[in-house]
Amino acid sequence: MYCQQYPKTVKDIESQYKKNISKYPTPNDIEKLKELITASDKIDYKEGAIKGKMILLNIYNELSDYKTSLALIKEIESSDSVGNGRMSSLSIFKSNINKAMGLDKEALKNLQKALQYAKSVSDPDGRHIKSAQVYANLALYYDSKSPNALLSNLQKELYELKQLSEKTSEEKITKYTKIVLNNINIGNYYLGVVKPMRLDLAEPYYLGVYSYKTSQPIVFENNAMNILKGVGRFYLEKGDYHKTIEMANEILVREKQNRNPTHRLFGFQLLADSNEELKNSKEQAKYTLLYAKLNDSLNLIAKKEVGKEVDQLITTVKKEKDNEHNSNLKTILLLVGGFIIIFTLSIWWYWRNKNRKLKIKYHEVIKKLNEESDLSDTSLEIDEINSETETEAKAPIKISEDKVKIVLARMNRFEKSKKFLKKDISLPWLANYANVNTKYLSQIIRNEKDNNFNGYINQLRINYILRKLYESPVYREYKISYLAEECGFASAQVFVIAFKKETDLTPSYFIQNLNAESIA
Q1: What secondary structure letter does DSSP report for 377?
Q2: Chain-centre distance of CA 512, in angstroms?
Q3: How far is 303 from 10, CA to CA, in rounded Å?
Q4: How many Å apart are CA 454 and CA 461, to the nearest integer?
Q5: C-alpha distances in angstroms, 66 versus 27, 137, 391?
Q6: 0.70 cut: is pTM over it?
Q7: CA separation for the pair 425, 454 (Å, rounded)
Q8: What pLDDT sits at residue 337?
Q9: Does residue 373 come out as left (phi exceeding 0), alpha (psi in the -120 to 50 range) or beta?
Q10: Do residues 480 and 495 make contact, with C-beta atoms less than 8 angstroms apart?
Q11: For the purposes of burial, counting CB atoms within 10 Å of the CB of 485, is it exposed (0-12), middle (13-18) or buried (19 or more)?
Q12: How high is the mean pLDDT of the chain?
């Protein structure tokens, strides 16, 4: 038991809430909350009981325990003196549950009801906060349905937030913290949702919150990572890559003080992208590799966590056969009794825009793999046709066409033999294999393969590992370093660079999408 005896007065109960319930409650707080609810019931302290149930409701929602959540909502609604503010919150909870279960129409009705309750709150600040909370949820609801409604609700949220009073320093910090998150989301709308992208309309929102670094330093420090991510992404899209690097480096410096690998991952991606645009190949390679390694580690952790959740679910089913727990792994973005923080959109909208481009590249690679499978038996004939039809348009070489065909045939056998996987492969070695001197071989590779020797070998190796990953799921479980060694690269760093050069994708991204399609 959490305590040997229940607190007996209102003062004791409030003291226990303050002392023993964490600011961001977790499942570890469930038993403590149940005891405080029981203690409140014993002395007929309705506010104490409702407070505990609202916190419990938030925890059960985050656990995706919708059956328990709905029962708890019904219990709270039947209580006396719940108030319009909490009724608004309960309607939002119901909306999120309905949306998670695919009941979109019911979810929208819940939000409309939540807005009615919010507008009926008598206290002005309470009314503005609750209304802003509902508009934030409406923005989430309309995200993939109506871009115009999404923006409209974000703007309505901002209007409500600007009405909040700032008589005390605490009220001022709370107000501008919420405005920061809203502004980032509106900026993200103009960069990641509206077509074409509107950098001009996004700029005042991003740079406005960045100016808080001097005008509202406490607010900035409390929201530094969200601001820096948003502004960094803005500068990347704008093409100001030096500013992007500045933001990304500050993200990494701050992340060292408050460890969070997702922030680090974001910083690595910004640095890889911006250095790629600046043609800083060494730095681009460095951060691409760091990104790939960290992303692999996070994916591995995620897999283990999913495994634990499955084990826990199986255990729960065995213990409670009548429990119809719905675990669809959708995150409910709610904070108890107040404002919804939708800062995860600042990451999500960035990646959504980027992932559209990556998805196109991914499907191009898959299409190419499928086409190569269809043409695998005719590769020699195709090479011979190309040699006859294209040689005239390229640099002439002092070697007969018949000799070129013979060399190409030997190169074709070389490709089929997979000898390109040898780590010590070299131009002289291949020239000896093809029975031609290195100068002629280099020219043939340039004319017929549209590549230099290193590019030609790297292309073969990457195509080999692409095929393995596509056809053999076991390869998707291997580390990047193993994949690099498997296809003949001396290091993981060189492998990642070559992979991205050939596909415009990182190995991690390609593997993630293959796995996702396998599950689907």
Answers
A1: G
A2: 12
A3: 45
A4: 11
A5: 15, 18, 68
A6: no
A7: 10
A8: 33
A9: alpha
A10: yes
A11: middle
A12: 79
